[in-house]
Specification:
The chain contains six helices and no strands. It is an all-alpha fold and 161 residues long.
């Protein structure tokens, strides 16, 4: 998947938010937001809720939570000048059950926040690609959901969200 369109859209949204909120150093906040969004995504899948018989949320709800993470992942890359990442890196080595994949993705995020390296950044993308695969999301679905959520984020900013 080509990422240049998503990086471009995220740069514009970040600039819009920066202009209206005058926030300066927000890297740590974005990192925490990414971890929170990962947890919200896991919660919607309910993959870890062994004590419950209730199934996962609707696929569109899970997809929206997924792209919430993508917004912050893009934003973190932009802030560290890693937005030259052209294609979504993949790895066939990331075969695990969903619970394990969420735990591994969280570890990848923490590692990036600690190291701030391009390698650790691309590793998060690989994990999110594995999540997309196991959740059954196509490239087209992810892009469209990102575009839709991007528009919603602008509307939220305009309404004082």
């Amino acid at each position: 998947m080509k990422l240049d369109q998503l990086f471009s859209m995220q740069k514009a949204l970040d600039a819009y938010i920066q202009k209206n909120h005058k926030a300066t150093e927000t890297f740590d906040e974005r990192g925490l937001a990414l971890l929170v969004e990962l947890a919200e995504l896991a919660n919607e899948t309910r993959c870890f809720k062994f004590w419950s018989t209730k199934g996962p949320s609707a696929k569109d709800v899970i997809l929206e939570e997924y792209v919430d993470s993508i917004h912050f992942l893009l934003s973190l890359g932009i802030e560290k000048d890693f937005d030259g990442l052209e294609n979504w890196p993949t790895s066939n080595a990331l075969e695990a059950d969903l619970t394990q994949l969420f735990l591994q993705t969280g570890q990848a995020i923490y590692k990036f926040l600690d190291e701030l390296s391009f390698e650790s950044y691309t590793n998060i993308w690989m994990h999110y690609g594995a999540l997309a695969k196991i959740l059954g999301f196509t490239e087209e679905q992810i892009i469209q959901a990102y575009i839709d959520k991007n528009e919603e984020n602008y509307a939220r900013q305009r309404s004082g969200y």
